[in-house]
User: Which sequence fits this backbone?
């Protein structure tokens, strides 16, 4: 190419008029092609040899005095490099370079905790193209009767979580000591769990395992990983239970409640969705408020029954519209875990409840009543009967 381009330019120079006319264009083409050859083509070649990061990296005690690092084979990898964290300079140092057919490596004899990470590489000519480093894993060697051992099996109490699109929930996770320990009282030396989500547009998880859905329907997996790389996951489904509800058994309800559902459904759904989102964004606040009309029926009054004041200005207009136009005495009650639309008639009331969590798991947010039934997913209706009967 270096020989061809000057020849092309010389050919143009034979015609001075032509070269003088197109001099800028010719030089532009020349330098563009040169840039492509020097910069773009090497990048393209590197992109074609891109290699994936090793996964399923684990480390365990081996032979009571060594540590064994394992990983899943990376497609087209020519080799792997194992790096170990050095406390002396607080940096990782390469301790091994193994071929592409190898999927494990053992350390020298040791009695201490060691931390490792792995990367794969592929040869491209005389160069090596490296993957990103894997997550770090750590472990300590131990004898079978040791008092402190590595993590064993991780297991969630639930197999699946059905959450609303605005919900915060921390699942129950059990972590056991490694099954290779002979001491039944052996303790895990590091119980730290690292959490991550397969799709943070559906649900995020914090360092304590609290899962928060992000206002979007869909599903994802939430992973929990122990210090040594042992991992488990739980499937999370996010669904919008607050809006576009198909209420059932409405004719079985009292007339006031039928009126509320038939004529104000969009408004009560909007109110329910707002307070559900608010509570998901501010979990563990344990706030309770009662909303009603002022004496002159011109504004919404919020009475704090427990905890701090709940911010409601963004939904105040909707509540005011419902409270003003509904032909009856009505209260909107927000408690920890539910919104209640309470309609009074003399000494009795009926309620339509929207429960933020799964009703089967959180029955404590629903009062016992004479007449109570589920009218939709996470929505319940009940009629108290005259108070004092």
Assistant:
């Amino acid at each position: 190419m270096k020989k061809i381009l000057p020849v092309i330019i010389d050919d143009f120079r034979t015609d001075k008029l032509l070269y003088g006319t197109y001099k800028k264009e010719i030089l532009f083409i020349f330098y563009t092609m040169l840039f492509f050859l020097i910069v773009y083509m090497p990048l393209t070649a590197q992109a074609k040899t891109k290699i994936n990061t090793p996964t399923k990296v684990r480390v365990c005690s081996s032979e009571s005095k060594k540590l064994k690092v394992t990983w899943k084979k990376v497609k087209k990898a020519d080799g792997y490099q194992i790096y170990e964290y050095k406390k002396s300079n607080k940096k990782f140092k390469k301790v091994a370079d193994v071929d592409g057919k190898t999927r494990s490596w053992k350390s020298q004899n040791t009695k201490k905790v060691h931390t490792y990470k792995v990367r794969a590489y592929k040869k491209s000519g005389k160069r090596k193209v490296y993957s990103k480093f894997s997550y770090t894993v750590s472990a300590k060697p131990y004898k079978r009767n040791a008092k402190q051992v590595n993590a064993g099996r991780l297991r969630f109490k639930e197999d699946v979580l059905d959450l609303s699109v605005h919900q915060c929930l921390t699942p129950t996770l059990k972590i056991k000591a490694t099954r290779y320990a002979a001491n039944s009282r052996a303790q895990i030396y590091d119980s730290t769990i690292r959490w991550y989500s397969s799709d943070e547009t559906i649900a995020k998880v914090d360092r304590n395992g609290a899962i928060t859905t992000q206002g979007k329907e869909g599903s994802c997996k939430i992973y929990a990983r122990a210090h040594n790389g042992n991992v488990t996951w739980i499937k999370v489904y996010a669904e919008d239970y607050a809006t576009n509800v198909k209420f059932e058994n409405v004719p079985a309800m009292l007339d006031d409640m039928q009126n509320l559902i038939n004529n104000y459904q969009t408004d009560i759904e909007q109110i329910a969705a707002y307070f559900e989102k608010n509570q998901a964004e501010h979990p563990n606040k344990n706030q309770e408020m009662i909303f009603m009309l002022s004496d002159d029926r011109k504004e919404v009054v919020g009475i704090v029954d427990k905890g701090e004041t709940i911010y409601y200005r963004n939904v105040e207009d909707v509540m005011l519209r419902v409270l003003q136009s509904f032909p009856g005495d009505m209260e909107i009650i927000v408690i920890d875990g539910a919104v209640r639309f309470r309609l009074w008639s003399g000494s009795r009331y009926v309620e339509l409840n929207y429960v933020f969590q799964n009703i089967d798991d959180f029955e404590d947010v629903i009062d016992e009543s004479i007449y109570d039934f589920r009218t939709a997913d996470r929505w319940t209706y009940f009629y108290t009967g005259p108070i004092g009967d």
Notes: Residues 1-9 have pLDDT under 50 and may be disordered. The longest strand covers residues 114-124. The chain has four helices and 26 strands.
